[in-house]
């Protein structure tokens, strides 16, 4: 039986390379199967009118803790994951790594057990931020659960993860080459963060296989003219990518703009978004435009990826097409997801339609419109 087809017409389509306004997006099943001219659309295709809005690849958030008012760490169950995934997809994020910050071993084990058998087309795996961090740069992470890396414990963690652990934030100065290799051999993408690393320590970590930097500038050694630290190492590297929280709170917009000039295609967006919670390891309090711990420590953002894209354009002078790449194509490339982050024949039919006020009006996930 032939798959039904959907044609999205009358939109400004961003392929990942450029905007085109004379093409439709043709979907069959969960894939993009063509970018036809309007006169070439099959007669049997269901027509979706974009109304002149932007049609772009679905956003990919490699560091998000919750959504829809739910925090995964507070209740790591399939039901909560369903609520989080639904909220994120409706906001335009069609791919994400659910993230767990430093926590009790019991919470981590429970989260891993739940994720073994959980499946959702937007969930790309788990990002574990901690516990192998530098306590001097712990930020909102509780000091009592931060530990030094031990090979036996890491081997046990990888065995429990059974492949669902895709990314991990570590402090490179606390690792040796062999311990990093253990994680890399387990298929884990490593990102440097919550770190007091010097420039030399950070570069050594990069040479040993760390491929990214977590929320640039936040919870790391500062960029000082006598030791440029982890930010300086990221700038000087020719391959390491860095995530950034574009809310104007975690990082000033001028720092975002400067970082974009220096890093170019190596800078990508994350939200670091949490949800208000009073129980469990973390107490996140909503302060109107951010979340803090009860003592005022910044603990997470209230961003969506759509808002991050808008902030890049409105406040940092980043062209819209490049802001979209930062939210879709670049994170997809980092995790090796070749079928995500672009609109092209064979790509996943994960699409976001938004207007010139950056309001998300339609989302397609795996070819299906989301209500």
Computed over alpha carbons, the radius of gyration is 20 Å
Strand order of the largest sheet: 8-11-12-13-14-15-16-17
CATH class placement of the largest domain: Alpha Beta
- The CATH architecture designation of the largest domain is Alpha-Beta Barrel
Terminal CA distance reads 26 Å
Low-confidence stretches: none
What is the CATH superfamily of the largest domain? Answer: Metal-dependent hydrolases
- Remind me, CATH topology of the largest domain? TIM Barrel
The helix content is: 25-40%
For the report, how would you describe the main beta sheet?
Answer: 8 strands, parallel
How does the SSE layout of this entry go?
Layout: E1 5-9, E2 12-14, E3 19-20, E4 25-28, E5 31-34, E6 46-49, E7 54-57, E8 59-64, E9 66-67, E10 70-71, H1 78-90, E11 93-101, H2 105-116, E12 123-129, H3 151-161, E13 165-170, H4 177-185, E14 189-192, H5 199-207, E15 212-213, H6 229-236, E16 241-245, H7 253-263, E17 267-270, E18 285-286, E19 290-292, E20 298-301, H8 305-316, H9 320-327, H10 329-334, E21 351-354, E22 360-365, E23 368-369
Parallel strand pairs: 1-6, 2-7, 8-11, 11-12, 12-13, 13-14, 14-15, 15-16, 16-17
Antiparallel strand pairs: 1-4, 2-3, 4-5, 7-21, 9-10, 18-19, 19-20, 21-22, 22-23
Helix pairs in contact: 5-6, 7-8, 8-9
């Amino acid at each position: 039986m032939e798959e039904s087809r959907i044609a999205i017409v009358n939109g400004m389509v961003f392929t990942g390379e450029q905007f085109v306004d004379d093409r439709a997006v043709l979907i069959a099943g969960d894939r993009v199967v063509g970018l036809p001219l309007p006169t070439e659309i099959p007669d049997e295709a269901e027509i979706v009118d974009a109304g002149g809005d932007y049609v772009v690849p679905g956003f990919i958030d490699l560091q998000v803790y919750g959504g829809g008012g739910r925090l995964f760490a507070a209740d790591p169950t399939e039901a909560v994951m369903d609520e989080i995934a639904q909220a994120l997809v409706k906001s335009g994020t069609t791919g994400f790594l659910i993230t767990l910050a430093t926590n009790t071993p019991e919470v981590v084990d429970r989260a891993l057990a739940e994720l073994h058998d959980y499946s959702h087309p937007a969930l790309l795996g788990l990002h574990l931020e901690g516990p192998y961090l530098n306590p001097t740069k712990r930020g909102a992470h509780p000091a009592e659960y931060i530990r030094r890396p031990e090979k036996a414990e890491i081997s046990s963690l990888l065995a429990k993860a059974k492949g669902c652990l895709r990314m991990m934030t570590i402090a490179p100065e606390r690792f040796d080459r062999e311990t990093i290799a253990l994680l890399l051999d387990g298929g884990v993408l490593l990102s440097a963060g919550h770190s007091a690393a010097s420039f030399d320590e950070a570069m050594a970590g990069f040479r040993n296989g760390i491929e990214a930097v977590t929320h640039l500038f936040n919870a790391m050694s500062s960029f000082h003219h006598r030791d440029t630290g982890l930010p300086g190492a990221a700038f000087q590297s020719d391959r390491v990518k860095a995530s950034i929280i574009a809310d104007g709170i975690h990082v000033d917009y001028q720092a975002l703009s400067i970082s974009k000039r220096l890093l170019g295609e190596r800078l990508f967006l994350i939200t670091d978004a949490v949800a208000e919670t009073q129980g469990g390891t973390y107490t996140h309090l909503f302060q109107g435009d951010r979340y803090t711990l009860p003592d005022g420590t910044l603990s997470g953002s209230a961003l969506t990826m759509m808002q991050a894209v808008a902030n890049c354009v409105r406040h940092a002078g980043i062209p819209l097409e490049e802001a979209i790449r930062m939210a879709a194509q670049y994170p997809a490339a980092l995790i090796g997801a070749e079928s995500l982050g672009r609109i092209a024949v064979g790509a996943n039919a994960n699409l976001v339609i938004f207007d010139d006020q950056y309001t998300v009006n339609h989302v397609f996930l795996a070819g299906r419109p989301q209500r």
